[in-house]
Amino acid sequence: xxxxxxxxxxxxxxxxxxxxxxxxxxxxxxxxxxxxxxxxxxxxxxxxxxxxxxxxxxxxxxxxxxxxxxxxxxxxxxxxxxxxxxxxxxxxxxxxxxxxxxxxxxxxxxxxxxxxxxxxxxxxxxxxxxxxxxxxxxxxxxxxxxxxxxxxxxxxxx
Length: 158
Hints:
alpha/beta; Cytidine Deaminase, domain 2; disordered C terminus
């Protein structure tokens, strides 16, 4: 299940609507190992296409270095579909290389960049297998839980 705060959800939807009729794309980073989507990073679709998205390789490298410096990872990888439903295409599935990420698709096919609802769906994509998951939008993400200290020696705390 993906739990996402309202501001991040609204930011992703606004980005998808703003870039319509081209596909929008971006990442929501969060602290490593927490599954918390905390920092929305809108990316430019280097393909500039209504049917395909591509992260600019220089921008993507810069983002991954920045996430590494902040001890973050991509929690959500999102893009929009402008003429089809919010379901991963064969190309999307082939490009999915982050097994722990939530892959969010936003379809702007009905309203375009006009006011109105969008289709917002999330998937896990691992080894080419697509599994849809529930999306819960909350006003604010709950506080993080303190990590339990493990005994010295065995990294598993045994």
